[in-house]
Backbone:
């Protein structure tokens, strides 16, 4: 299988795994009090909710140093985290391609390698 | 897999903290040893860290109707061994605990243990076993990265069940409950993580073959390349 085809298949499978749930998962039924159930809630939050049910007397004994400043700022910081990672990987890809091109050129001209 | 700030009893938080401190210490030593003789490996170490930065920032929807994120630790564990990921996971988790109020300082030890110790150890073991059984490199990497992801979440479930046993069913019933929250949601994400790890590994194999060789990878012939 050619490299490009394989890359394409890998990326489209990941895209399908991510986007199909958005299309096919139904909005859950509203809660008993008529409140709208939240779709695609974080599993970490669900675990915290389960702890509160298992041990209702448990009091978290420490709270975050910097409280969340709201969903907008949280998404900013998550995007920053991903951007730092993606920036470095982009740098690595560019660096590697440049290096490969360079070494091809030198080996073509003076057969160093 | 982030246990929220304050959501582990003091004794648990302190014990996981102690265990993880030791693991991060060994991890720093193993990284220092790896890059001391071969400074050219720093680039791949950075790629492993960056991969974890991206993947753990992406909260992806799952078929269960809830959201979770991959961990990205399988790649670094395959390349640098299981210990090296503990300090890298610690950096990511510290960033998220301090800036994002996601996870926490008191639960940092427990979270490092699941994401930076157990997951990478599982990934490393699976990769090496799979290669010993002559499973092709791409499938070995896929299995290693997916299982590193899944075992991280299974570890979180076990840590929570250990701290909060069910009043009636004890540890077992509580574990089933937490696995129900984490593990099923995680399956499609683990598959995505496995595929993305194969993708980046094939790029590394193509462009950093000298570095891979100095990490002790027997590079397969052209026909076996992924």
Residues:
């Amino acid at each position: 299988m050619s490299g490009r085809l394989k890359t394409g298949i890998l990326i489209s499978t990941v895209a399908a795994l991510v986007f199909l749930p958005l299309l096919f998962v139904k909005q859950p039924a509203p809660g008993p009090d008529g409140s709208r159930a939240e779709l695609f809630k974080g599993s970490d939050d669900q675990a915290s909710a389960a702890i509160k049910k298992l041990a209702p007397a448990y009091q978290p004994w420490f709270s975050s140093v910097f409280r969340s400043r709201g969903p907008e700022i949280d998404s900013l910081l998550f995007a920053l985290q991903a951007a730092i990672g993606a920036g470095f990987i982009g740098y690595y890809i560019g660096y590697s391609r440049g290096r490969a091109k360079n070494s091809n050129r030198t080996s073509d001209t003076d057969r160093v390698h | 897999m982030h246990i929220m700030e304050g959501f582990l009893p003091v004794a648990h938080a302190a014990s996981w903290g102690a265990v993880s401190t030791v693991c991060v210490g060994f991890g720093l030593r193993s990284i220092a040893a790896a890059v001391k003789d071969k400074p050219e490996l720093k680039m791949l170490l950075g790629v492993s860290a960056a991969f974890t930065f991206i993947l753990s920032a992406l909260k992806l929807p799952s078929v269960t109707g809830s959201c979770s994120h991959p961990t990205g630790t399988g790649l670094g564990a395959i390349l640098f061994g299981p210990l090296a990921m503990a300090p890298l996971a610690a950096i990511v988790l510290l960033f998220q605990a301090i800036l994002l109020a996601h996870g926490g300082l008191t639960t940092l030890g427990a979270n490092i243990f699941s994401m930076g110790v157990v997951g990478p150890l599982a990934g490393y073991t699976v990769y090496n076993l799979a290669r010993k059984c002559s499973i092709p490199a791409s499938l070995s990497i896929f299995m290693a990265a997916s299982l590193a992801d899944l075992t991280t979440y299974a570890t979180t479930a076990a840590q929570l069940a250990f701290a909060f046993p069910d009043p009636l069913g004890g540890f077992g019933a509580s574990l089933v409950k937490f696995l129900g929250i984490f593990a099923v949601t995680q399956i499609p994400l683990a598959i995505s993580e496995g595929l993305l790890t194969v993708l980046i590994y094939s790029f590394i194999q193509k462009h950093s073959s000298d570095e891979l060789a100095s990490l002790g990878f027997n590079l397969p012939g052209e026909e076996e390349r992924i």
Remarks:
- The CA atoms of residues 151 and 185 of chain B lie 13 Å apart.
- Chain B has a mean pLDDT of 93.
